[in-house]
Design goal:
D-Maltodextrin-Binding Protein, domain 2, Arc Repressor Mutant, subunit A, 293 residues, transcription, alpha/beta, 12 strands, five-stranded mixed sheet, 3 domains
Length: 293
């Protein structure tokens, strides 16, 4: 083992590799992030293990888990690299020339709201940055961010583990959608809402939980007649039915302009909910990640 207190003779590029490995928890993803080959990253990890006299990252299933020593090193390493990048100046990251893939987790509702503005800017300012979008439940997205399988999760996360940081993007409210013909010319008061069958959009959990919690607080329950895993098709499926769909209002922009549909506020109070972007604190020292946020 080398004396790590002696910088002379140590390849400081190894620390950049270690930082990427601690963030990605995966050799191939770290290699893609660094624009290196997988064998080169594996070789660098072997050198790091020799340098520190510690395994640093141990394979567990399909990911690498940091050792206790690596967990202790991570904050100081990120801070040191952040300061070094500041010394070297802004040339350390240039979105116009950066080549990298970011993995984002969001629902198709999130994709419909976020991507129309994000993609044109990304193609214009950072044509070498690619996006890989995945969809999962809230629990699944949190797990992906914790394990390093995902760079950024976008959605509604009322509860999140301590290492995860969040920034609010906007505050959303619920709205109801119904076919006007199916309503027979009437409105949608609470009695009518409870009397009609409902469509729910949910994977394993989701905003439907907030809707039903608000109803339970009033001593009521609704009947879920149709459950779908995706937001995108749900509004269009209401046409010609007696179903009611209660979803985020931004998902109903097209239907609000269609006179065949009624779009209205729910006939009972449901709390507003913040739509946030969520990342692991180990990404804080990554200038490309900071730029994307």
């Amino acid at each position: 083992m080398h004396d790590v207190n002696t910088l002379r003779g140590i390849d400081l590029n190894l620390l950049v590799v270690l930082d990427a490995l601690l963030a990605e928890r995966h050799v191939s993803r770290a290699a893609a992030r660094l624009a290196m080959s997988q064998p080169a990253v594996s070789h660098a990890l072997a050198r790091l293990r020799h340098l520190f006299g510690d395994p640093l990252l141990v394979r567990r299933g399909r990911q690498l888990v940091p050792s206790a020593r690596a967990q202790d090193l991570a904050p100081a390493l990120a801070s040191a690299l952040r300061q070094l990048r500041a010394v070297l100046g802004p040339g350390g990251f240039d979105p116009a020339t950066e080549r990298r893939t970011f993995r984002l987790a969001m629902s198709d509702y999130g994709a419909a709201v976020i991507l129309p503005d994000l993609l044109p800017r990304l193609r214009r300012e950072a044509p070498g940055i690619d996006l890989a979008i995945t969809q999962s439940s809230r629990e699944g997205m949190l797990r992906q961010v914790l394990e390093g399988a995902c760079d950024l999760a976008l959605g509604v996360f009322p509860d999140r583990p301590g290492p995860l940081q969040a920034e609010g993007l906007f505050v959303e409210r619920f709205a109801c959608l119904a076919d006007r013909a199916g309503l027979g010319g009437g409105g949608l008061d609470l009695a009518a809402y409870l009397a009609r069958p409902h469509m729910l959009v949910a994977l394993q959990d989701g905003p439907g939980a907030e809707i039903d919690a608000a109803l339970r607080a009033l001593g009521h329950a609704r009947r879920i007649a149709v459950t779908l895993p995706h937001w995108g098709h749900a509004p269009g499926l209401i046409r010609g039915t007696d179903l009611v769909l209660t979803v985020a209002r931004r998902a109903l922009a097209r239907q609000e302009a269609d006179p065949a549909f009624l779009v209205c506020a729910p006939p009972f109070a449901i709390p507003l909910f913040p739509f946030v972007q969520l990342w692991h604190e180990r990404r804080n020292g990554d200038p490309a990640h900071l730029w994307l946020r």
